[in-house]
């Protein structure tokens, strides 16, 4: 029983084909597929991509749709953390509504799965989790949403946070978050022991924000690798940002990347312009699962971001000085297959039998789509059309 | 005799006003200005900016509108130069048509003045200049266009190039270009002596591409400063890119920035993600005239770029880790007033008496416009509407 046929699309830029969807999965690909009474969409020769994967964002605290807030905070992470925790209350930020707003923007831009961190702290308790979990429930048919319990304000330095993290994981957070075990928590052993203990006890993966630069970050990386191996957590640990891998010591970083690959630790980089970043091609060549994301957007940290993972591929490619088409395509792959690998999404891709999470965009080549950022012509989630011509077919309000 | 009245606009985010234009200049600002039979546009409360300034690009060699060319070239500058010189002939690139295409894109995005480098070399002679000069003539009423004679393939290393540069300046190039006196030309004294001699003899300003990194770039900078002072060329010399000023030595770079300010040398940075950049805020605080540009776009060097100088302000701000509204506004200022200062554009701005080069965009604040990149609602050049709702009212074909 075919539900949907999309005619004349070019999967990842290859020869034009039709694609038939049944039961939320790709049922057939080929020319002149029979419609059998199913809904038919004309792809018009557009590029066909698998759904874009937003593997690192903070849905609970975007200011999208709220009054404009002038940013006057200092640029160091500690100041941004403290300012945000205070201002969320002043502004009366609603995590359910704000996360819905960003989810709708993401769907309009072709994202079919999101991993979001949510703040867990002693000021707001589990309010962020509850709000984003409500959004996860509300949009369950149109997007996959993973939630990371994230101790944004620190864990060892704020008594009561560990217990809240434990409770968050019991109440539905999917992943154990961590944050700068040295630079924010000032207790790398304590912090990482708690993170890995929570992961083991709850049987859940780990995703650690590691902004720590240079030698400090490499030191922490060593401790993360040691614990990943000791607990047998290959394929279950992601290190996000990993600025320290941008250190200007190619041989040393190269050796560490091989070690990271060997331990089955995964990486996330947003490709930020103003700080060192992990060398993308070297990391991919080492065999590391590598994903990307928008990070916080239009929030109390910074005004930037638009939830467009096609643009994120461009940013990531440009940040890594990639100009050749074949390299730009690898950056796009990070925002599709890389994200799916890190998030552990089953049956992701463009093969018959895969879930029908699909995006159509105009472009002669994949690289042209990455640099021109065409409107998403059609976005399909599990076989259902969820956005068309840049507009989501679901609402946030 | 009023020609145009735009009602209800907020100049640089300030209180709403009307603006009246006569004879290509701003004739009056205030509420309820009389129309006196002039054309009336409703600004609808939009932000009013002075025309955006594209102070560094390469109009002669974009591939816009041509067949897609897969980029397979190595990433070093020398390889890119040689590949481009060869491929321009293979592709039959037409500098007049290609520059027209990019100019139209720029106008649609609110740019009212462009400084373009054009390649001068012994393979193509003055063909680039002739093509872009034809475009300058063709669009004279709708955009200001300055042309830099640019020895892209090197000058001392290619016999006959100096004579071509001289001829280009006689035939209408406005500015003397230069390029990596050490790294490309391997003769800093010879290269800079020629550049400054051409400038003095033709009475024209200088704009030098300086990609040279670290100590090498600082060495060349010293030679440029010395010659600028010796020839009394304060306010006439621009150093573009200036990656060496991104060196991680704050005190030393700070002292050099003060010296640059003292010599009246100006800077251009596109805010590239993957290389060091001059520290924007420190340079502005030193009093340096600072502009920005798209650089080469959709060309044989790299596939990126969209000629949007509002987005360039965003890129520049993000690259310099600027998140506070007041800082983001300084990056926007670089793409308006900074560009006008470097290009020496007379009567630029939003005061009565200034030329009516105007852009209207939606946004609650200037920073919101920089991060959301709204379509340009209206673009006015010398009092004439040249673009509306993101579309130029002139054509390239």
UniProtKB/TrEMBL annotation, chains A, B:
- Pfam family membership, one: Amidohydro_3
Show the GO MF annotations: hydrolase activity, acting on carbon-nitrogen (but not peptide) bonds, in cyclic amidines
- The Amidohydrolase domain sits at 121-387
The record's listing under InterPro entries reads: Amidohydro_3, Metal-dep_hydrolase_composite, Metal_Hydrolase, Metallo-hydrolase_Enzymes
The record's listing under NCBIfam families reads: PRK05985.1
For this protein, the record's PANTHER family field holds: BLL3847 PROTEIN, CYTOSINE DEAMINASE
Question: Protein name, please?
Answer: Amidohydrolase family protein
């Amino acid at each position: 029983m075919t539900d949907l046929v999309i005619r004349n699309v070019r999967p990842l830029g290859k020869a034009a084909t039709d694609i038939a969807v049944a039961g939320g999965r790709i049922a057939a690909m080929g020319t002149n597929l029979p419609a059998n009474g199913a809904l038919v969409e004309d792809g018009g020769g557009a590029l066909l991509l698998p759904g874009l994967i937003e593997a690192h964002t903070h849905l609970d605290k975007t200011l999208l749709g709220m009054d404009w807030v002038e940013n006057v905070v200092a640029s160091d992470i500690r100041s941004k953390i403290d300012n945000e925790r205070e201002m969320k209350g002043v502004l009366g930020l609603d995590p359910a509504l704000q996360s819905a707003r960003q989810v709708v923007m993401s769907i309009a831009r072709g994202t079919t799965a999101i991993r979001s961190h949510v703040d867990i702290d002693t000021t707001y308790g589990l309010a962020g989790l509850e709000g984003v979990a409500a959004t996860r429930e509300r949009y369950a048919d149109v997007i996959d949403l993973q939630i990371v319990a994230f101790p944004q304000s620190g864990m060892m330095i704020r008594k009561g946070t560990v217990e809240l993290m434990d409770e968050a994981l019991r109440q539905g957070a999917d992943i154990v978050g961590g944050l700068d075990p040295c630079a924010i928590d000032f207790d790398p052993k304590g912090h990482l022991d708690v993170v890995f203990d929570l992961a083991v006890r709850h049987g859940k993966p780990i995703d650690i924000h590691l902004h720590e630069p240079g030698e400090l970050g490499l030191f922490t990386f060593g401790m993360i690798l040691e614990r990943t191996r000791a607990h047998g957590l290959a394929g279950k640990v992601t290190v996000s940002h990993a600025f320290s891998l941008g250190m200007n010591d190619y041989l040393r970083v190269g050796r560490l990347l091989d070690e990271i690959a060997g331990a089955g630790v995964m990486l996330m980089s947003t490709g930020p312009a103003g700080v060192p970043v992990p060398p993308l091609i070297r990391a991919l060549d080492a065999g590391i699962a590598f994903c990307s994301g928008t990070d916080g957007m239009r929030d109390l940290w910074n005004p930037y971001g638009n939830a467009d993972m096609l643009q994120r591929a461009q940013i990531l490619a440009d940040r890594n000085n990639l100009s050749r088409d074949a390299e730009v395509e690898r950056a796009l792959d990070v925002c599709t297959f890389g994200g799916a690998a890190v998030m552990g999404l089953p049956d992701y891709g463009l093969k018959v039998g895969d879930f029908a999470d699909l995006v159509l965009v105009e472009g002669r080549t994949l690289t042209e789509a990455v640099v021109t950022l065409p409107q998403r012509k059609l976005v399909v989630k599990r076989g259902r059309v969820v956005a068309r011509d840049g507009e989501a077919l679901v609402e946030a309000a």
